[in-house]
Amino acid sequence: MGSSKSLADLAKAVKGSVIGFSETRVHDITHDSRQAGPGTLFVAISGAEFDGHNFVDQAARAGTAAVCVERRVSADINQLVVGNTREVLGKLAAEVHDNPSESVDVIGVTGTNGKTTVTHYIESLLGLSGFSTGLIGTIATRIGNESLSSVRTTPEASDFQRLLARMRDARVAKAAVEVSSHALDLHRVDGTRFAVAAFTNLSQDHLDFHGSMDEYRSAKARLFRDFEIGTAVFNVDDETGREFAADFSGEKFTVGEGGDFQIVDVESVPAGTGFQLLTPDGVFEGSAAVHGRFNVSNLLVAIAGSVAAGAKVGGLIRHLGDIGPVPGRFEIVSREGEPTVVVDYAHTPDGIGMAVATGRAMAAGKLIAVFGAGGDRDRAKRALMGGAASSADVLVVTSDNPRSEDPDRIIDDVMEGVTTGSTRQSDRKKAITEAIRMAEPGDVVLILGKGHETGQEIAGEVLPFDDKEIARESLNLWWKSTNYRSDSGSMGP
């Protein structure tokens, strides 16, 4: 994959110095000593839990070609010494793989909410428009028709550039990628040219990592400040989006009220949502199988991002109805005759508020919400999440991924913000079953927080758990209960 580079070439690219044989050839790069081997450069990163310098000997025994370190090590091996290994990893990886983002148009999407949905929409729209596509994100990674598992929203820099190189070699033209604030802070996408960079919104999240909203905002801003960008896309319905757009001096599209791309006359239609699309190329009538104003906003960012990436608006409009659902993103898992049951990944106060507002608009009867908060994460948002969910008629407050925390303590924090009728049930399966049991046709049940996830992390162990499976099992029980109560004797599916 790509041609090899000499250690001297790499040292020049990152202003490092070489100890040993400078003409040593490197054809791959890794931050994981377990992946080190002949022809590989092992980069020793000092992380929160482990210091990669302690694994240099292991990499050397595996036959790695060289190591990149912040200080000279005693191992008898070629060394590239730099000031900060994490900061140079992305640049080194891009160099080793012949700068794949110069051959693949990378469309990066950042923001608190909507990254997964927008990247899936972009991948789908560009694919339907005739481009070969790739995807890197929370739910899945795809190289053309090949699907790979995803470990995190944005992979570590060495993995990220390797994926882009594989896309280039597979002749992928356009790659939609999620760019998290962690990735920006930790330099995971350094060395990347973004043909398009898009911003969705900013609200409270990840303060356990960033420390403050100012630091969180600054991490997001880095995408538009420190990288080469062809065209930027900003959601100006969001205050931070307006600020970013005003500060950005390059080519850009704005989306939302008063922007270059606007969606107006929004109405519910049997297939989802109908609307009028205002664009620099004219006015178009469209519809898509999406629900809720927030997903309409996500779709608008995706349309503008796709146009910035080279698609034509008229062609995109024809394909809007062909966009498939995004797993765990306001995904309806119920059938006709049942309460409407929706599984969604919403896990921030803003995301929960938008999901509840959308559920309210869909409900002919009660709105019931099931949700919890993650353990070992930003505690300050828990009560805010409880408040954001409180416009539902009934809340069932439960566990999310408690991790190392006591689930009941997490629920206590959430309950401090709850102002509506609620029950608490720390067993998430029982919580989902109880919520669906109390529902009737015309009611909407929102199951929030985990979305596409198929495991629940408890006390250091990830146990199998899928909200969608539990919801369907609970709906089968609902049918039995309904038919038992019914005078008609009608049978469900």
CATH superfamily of the largest domain: Mur-like, catalytic domain
Mean pLDDT: 94
Please report the distance between the alpha carbons of the first and last residues. Answer: 52 Å
| Category from helices, strands and their pairing | alpha/beta
CATH topology (fold) name of the largest domain: UDP-N-acetylmuramoyl-L-alanine:D-glutamate ligase
Sheet with the most strands, sense and barrel status: 8 strands, mixed
CATH architecture call of the largest domain: 3-Layer(aba) Sandwich
Q: What is the helical fraction, as a range of percent?
A: 25-40%
Radius of gyration in whole Å, from Cα? 24 Å
Strand line-up of the largest beta sheet: 11-10-9-12-8-13-14-15
Attribute tags:
single chain, 493 residues, alpha/beta, Udp-n-acetylmuramoylalanyl-d-glutamate--2,6- Diaminopimelate Ligase, Chain: A, domain 1, UDP-N-acetylmuramoyl-L-alanine:D-glutamate ligase, Protein-Tyrosine Phosphatase, Chain A, eight-stranded mixed beta sheet, six-stranded mixed beta sheet, 16 helices, disordered C terminus
Report a brief summary of the structure.
The chain has 493 residues and is an alpha/beta fold. It has an 8-stranded mixed sheet with strand order 11-10-9-12-8-13-14-15, sandwiched between helices. Strand 21 (367-371), helix 13 (382-389) and strand 22 (394-397) form a beta-alpha-beta unit.
Describe the structure.
The chain has 493 residues and is an alpha/beta fold. It has 3 domains: 5-85, MurE/MurF, N-terminal domain (Udp-n-acetylmuramoylalanyl-d-glutamate--2,6- Diaminopimelate Ligase, Chain: A, domain 1, 3-Layer(aba) Sandwich), CATH 3.40.1390; 100-322, UDP-N-acetylmuramoyl-L-alanine:D-glutamate ligase, CATH 3.40.1190; 331-485, Protein-Tyrosine Phosphatase, Chain A (Alpha-Beta Complex). It is built from 16 helices and 26 strands. It has an 8-stranded mixed beta sheet with strand order 11-10-9-12-8-13-14-15, sandwiched between helices. Strands 19-20-24-21-22-23 form a 6-stranded mixed beta sheet, with helices on both faces. The chain has a 5-stranded mixed beta sheet with strand order 2-7-6-5-4. Helix 4 packs across helix 10 (293-308) and helix 15 (428-437) packs parallel to helix 16 (467-485). The longest helix has 19 residues, at 467-485.
